[in-house]
Amino acid sequence: MIAPDRVVQRLIALGFVVAAGLLASACGQPAPAPAAAPSSATAEAYAPGLGEIMTLQQMRHVKLWLAGDAGNWDLAAYELKELGEGFDDVIKFHPAHEGSPVAPKDAIPRMVTVPLMDVQAAVDKKDSRAFEQAYDAFTKACNDCHQATNFSFNLVQRPATNPYPNQVFAPARK
């Protein structure tokens, strides 16, 4: 959020630019160039909240199941890559979390990495039975991680329905 004094400064600067433009146009002169935007050094960096990251993880978890269940191994591999990046983001932006006895930076590598690798192995083999078993083990690992970090109220499971009716999960015909 921009500090109130910065907002006032920006409004004053904008007023001067507008006034100069009006004066210049009245005199037949070209208007001055607008003031430069604040540099990235002064802009605040955005860091997604843990809830935002985990909501995307939940979406990817669902899509991973739907893709694997349909035998769309390319889409399943993509969702696995995205899940891995999401877990990396949790560790980067939320290495510790309020009230959690186990830090996400410790829990994720210890609890989620191997089950996620097992899903990847099943996807690489295009093995539906191994995928189901590995997906269920990965889901259990997610719930175990939630338990360890005091988020046990957040249980995930295999999706019972497709919440993405506008996406085709069957493999594309080649």
SSE arrangement:
Elements: H1 4-26, H2 50-69, H3 73-93, H4 104-111, H5 113-125, H6 128-148
Tell me what you see in this structure.
By secondary structure, the protein is mainly α. The chain folds into two domains: 1-45, no CATH class; 50-148, Up-down Bundle (Four Helix Bundle (Hemerythrin (Met), subunit A)). Helices cover 61% and strands 0% of the residues. The chain contains six helices and no strands. The protein has helices at residues 4-26, 50-69, 73-93, 104-111, 113-125, 128-148. α2 (50-69) runs antiparallel to α3, α2 packs antiparallel against α6 (128-148) and α3 runs antiparallel to α5. The protein is globular, with a radius of gyration of 25 Å. The model is unreliable at 1-27 (pLDDT under 50).
